[in-house]
Amino acid sequence: MEQLYEQNTILDTAFKILKHDELSLEMKAYAKEHNIPIIDDSGLETVLQFLKLKKPKRILEIGSAIGYWATIISRHTNADVVTIEREVGNFEKACEYIAKSSVSDHITIYRADALKFDVSSLEGQVFDVIFIDAAKSAYQRFFEKFEPFLADDGLMISDNLLFHGHIFIDREDLSRNLRDLTRKIKTYSAWLAQHPNYETIFLPLGDGIAFSYRVLHKVGIDNGGIDDEQKA
Ligand code: MG
Question: What are the structural domains of the chain?
Fold first, then answer.
């Protein structure tokens, strides 16, 4: 009994940073009613913990859905968020919610398929964080397409790498489409883990989130730590 009490106390106080407001709860209810997948509270809390350390000024999100992540993240971090959504219904709902939010001046939303998005609209922009949360079949292509806009010390975040738990299920049990997506998500995670320019941690919170810090390759590492001045 005492142990149970302790566990509940931990759960009650688990979310120290995330604060829902009337709008985020309304969006959450809308997403549930319309079967729109949104990040859960544990995933949000995890992202917010990292962002508290990172202190981003500008964030790019690939896959807005109804603007849930963008509005909550901007409200908690004061960062400006640029977000891209392909699906018309979601885009319109996102516009409506963003307009109603307290951070409407901090969010720019584009309606586009991120893979076809004309990146010239981002010319000259640098993002401290890029959050990938769109079509699960195209994560690597999103990563590679938008990486040029990531700051040198930027953080790339990839959501849904557990793919609602499908990555643990025997592949025979899944439909062909799900099997295919699951394989692509696993391939992406493996690719990400071995990326020479990023250090990645995979966390099994929310629906599985990867945080990839860009590694700055310093002059001197390849010659045993002796810098050019010393060598001369
Ligand atoms: Mg997601």
Answer: 17-216 (3.40.50.150)
